Each structure stands twice: as C-alpha cells, then as structure tokens.
Amino acid sequence: DCAAIAAGDGSLSLFTTDQVVADIHYHKALHPPVSPQQIAHKLLARNLSDIAAMGGQPTYCLASIVQKKGETWLHAFFDGLLQTADRYGVYLIGGDIVSAANDESSSLTLIGTVAEKDVCRRKGAEPGDILFATGKFGQSLQTGHHLDFEPRCKQGQWLAQQGFPNAMIDVSDGLLLDAYRLCCASDISLQLETPAIPFRNTQTTLTQALTDGEDYELLLSVPPSKEQTLEKSWPFDKVPITKIGTFSKRKDEVQITDADGRKLAPADELGYEQNL
C-alpha cells in the first residue's frame, strides 16, 4: 500500500499518495453539500489508511489543491485538514494551490515510518491462514461513511507490533477486489465465509458488502496458531475484528470461493473502480 525505503536504522520510511476528485470520490450535487472540511478529512484519511495497512506511524504530509472557490473555501479546507492531521499526529509541511475554472481536486502525499521487523505487506499469506477483517462493510456512499470514516491506524500498528499478520491490506475498492489483490500477491486462494461478513446496517446486501468499496477497513492473514490469541487480546472495543475466511493452496489459479465452493468472481472485475 506504500513505497517503503530503508532508513538505515532498522526502520522503513513509508511514502503514499492519493487524490480526492469531485464526482468520483464525492458528489457535488449531494444535499446537504459536501463541506470542504469533509473533503479534507477524506483526503488525509484515505492516505492514513495506506500507512495503517503496513503497520506504520504517519508523520508528515504535503497537499496540492486545484480549486475555483476562493479563500473562504480554502481556509475551511485547511481547517479540516489540520484537525484530522492533529488527531493522528501528522504535520502538514508544504504543498501547492492552483486556481482552475472547472476542476475540483486535491492530492496529498503522506510520509510515515515503521520498524522493519514490524512492517506488513500484501505478500505473505500462507495456506491455512485465517482472514480477519476490522469493522463493517457496504453502503459507504449511501450512509456517508466514505466522508467521515476513521482510518485504522492504531489497530494497524497494534497488529503489526504484536506480530499477528502474515499479510495485510486496506479495503478501498471493495472487500472482494482487495482480498483478491492480497491473494494474488501471496499466490494463494481464499474461501470466504460470506455469512460472517459484518454488514454496515440491516439494509446492506451481500453484493454491497463485497463490492461497494470506500470501507477503509483492514484485511489480514493470521496463522491459525494465533487465531484465538488475537480474538482474546483485541483491545479495540468499538472496532470489531471478525474471522471471515480461510486461505488455501492455489490449484489452477488464484480464486475466491464461498463456503460452498462457488467462485466469487471475476474478483478482479468487481469493485468500486468498476461501479463508478
């Protein structure tokens, strides 16, 4: 989820960048309209989610803004950005502002750090590992979750420092698509226990939970020997962690199936990217 560069002192510097673009990552026609503070929060938070997926601690960021709405909007935007940055111990150290007649977008580069011994990658899941997920899934756009979510930074750091994940990824483009990416990186298949997937609310369907995206939760592969310890020692009461699948050795191809062996695919064609 990030570029990782050895710092020479046993740690890695993490670098990630992401964008928020009008009518792709939020809709300008929503009522009430999306506020500049919400846009700023989402911009930083989706980058924080990448750092969280590698077990890292965020440190510094740079923001580049393309806007046409003037100083009042920009002041509100940076108020929101700095509020979120303060909550997560991030310092805004620079960036750029451009005025454009038709565009409305922002980009942020986030820097973090993690001990090399703790870093979590997408690659590393083993046959027999358990797939765990934090939080809930589906209906992120309908409920407003995609604008006010809290990235799982503390959870990612705790998991990494305790040595639970063999592999970890955050869910931005949909549970199914991002689980498939984890499988491909590890050259492994996955059986999803679809009834166990935690839905965001009672209106959420299985398809929405699998493919809506914008959840910003963590998926992690955990050795079966650590399964019970993780469940018993999980310290985050307000953020559930749920067993939702089991990894198995790849046969002919990487694939994701349900508990009855039916292929949940094409997983690489089902996700938020394809549902815009």
The major sheet is characterized as:
6 strands, mixed
End-to-end CA span: 22 Å
- Broad shape: globular
How much strand?
A: 25-35%
Enumerate the strands of the largest sheet in spatial order, edge to edge or round the barrel. 7-9-6-10-8-11
Mean pLDDT: 93
> What's the number of helices?
8
> Quick one: how many beta strands?
11
Order of helices and strands: EEHEHEEEHHHEHEHEHEE
Low-confidence stretches: none
Structure class: alpha+beta
Question: What is the percent of helical residues?
Answer: 25-40%
The Cα radius of gyration reads 19 Å
Brief summary:
The chain has 276 residues and is of the alpha+beta class.
Model description:
The chain is an alpha+beta fold and 276 residues long. The protein is built from eight helices and eleven strands. Helix 1 packs parallel to helix 2 and helix 1 packs parallel to helix 5.
